[in-house]
Specification:
By secondary structure, this protein is of the alpha/beta class. Helices cover 45% and strands 22% of the residues.
């Protein structure tokens, strides 16, 4: 009998609805329903009655509730005791979007090493669509990546951070005063992240009205390579502001004052719903704290 299913049962009993439990547990409602169905099949009893008046415990559900609460409490006590008596050991596979790796990889790894000195971290930097596939295929334990609008039932996803974006170019390619609109950009090559990524999709929509005169696109998955190319005058680029801040301050790049503001680029942290370990969530929480604290004190 899985503790996760019992915990879901208790949440529904306390909150009074499958929808509220799904929100509290950061899961989809179909995933919550599947857990309860699995628990009912295992016990051979209906646990909830759902009708026009709402959701309530069945007689068997009322009978199960105190036992479920006891088992959850015992499980939590056991995990806490083990964590206190024995440091975390083993290996954790973490995928990180290249933008976040460029900004945060060293601070995050130093923090994780201090917290879990016996853990081995396997770090993979790639574009977010690839990280999603690797996470759902159990090739990763945690992913820090660009937020996706489509909910994936197999994953728990929570907000991580968000950065404004700005258009930049080398001073020798464009004078910042000569560019004021998206239409002014069509005569220059555009450097971007690869196809199927969120930034690439935004640029395709942005230049769609100029289909016949659309700019040439060059894509690359490496933030460092994109920065080098834009600084060498290969083309213009829409980049997260923290990535280009130092180059702007050093006058190696100029910011283009485009009248159509680009949306912020948001990131999330995700792990698999069927992963009962608490460590991926702890690392996700510490990542969020480090990034938030640094932004607030900057």
């Amino acid at each position: 009998m899985r503790i996760r299913n019992l915990n879901t049962f208790v949440k529904i009993a306390r909150l009074g609805s499958f929808h509220a439990a799904a929100q509290h547990l950061h899961a989809t409602q179909p995933a919550i329903s599947a857990r309860i169905t699995a628990l009912e099949n295992e016990l051979g009893a209906q646990l909830f009655i759902r009708d026009k008046s709402g959701t309530r415990l069945s007689p068997r559900g009322v009978q199960l509730l105190p036992y479920a609460e006891k088992l959850i409490a015992i499980s939590q006590e056991m995990k806490q005791q083990i964590r206190e008596d024995a440091p975390e050991k083993g290996s954790l596979r973490i995928g990180i979007a290249d933008t976040l790796a460029h900004l945060w990889l060293s601070p995050l790894l130093r923090h994780w090493q201090a917290q879990y000195p016996l853990m081995s971290f396997e770090l993979i930097s790639d574009v977010s669509p690839t990280l999603v596939k690797q996470l759902t295929n159990c090739q990763l334990d945690l992913a820090l990546m660009v937020s996706d609008q489509n909910d994936i039932p197999e994953l728990v996803s929570e907000p991580l951070c968000s950065y404004p974006q700005c258009w930049v170019a080398a001073p020798g390619l464009i004078s910042d005063a000569s560019i004021r609109s998206v239409a002014d950009l069509v005569n220059y090559p555009v450097l971007s992240f690869p196809r199927e990524t969120r930034p690439w999709g935004y640029l395709q929509q942005l230049f769609q009205p100029f289909y016949e005169d659309a700019p040439v696109f060059h894509t690359c998955s490496s933030v460092a390579s994109l920065l080098t190319m834009v600084a060498q005058g290969i083309g213009v680029a829409l980049m997260p502001e923290p990535i280009v801040r130092q180059l702007l301050d050093d006058k190696q790049l100029v910011e283009l004052n485009i009248d159509q503001a680009a949306p912020a680029l948001s990131f999330n942290c995700s792990w698999r719903l069927d992963d009962d370990r608490i460590l991926p969530q702890l690392l996700a929480n510490s990542s969020r704290e480090i990034m938030t604290d640094t932004i607030q004190t900057a």
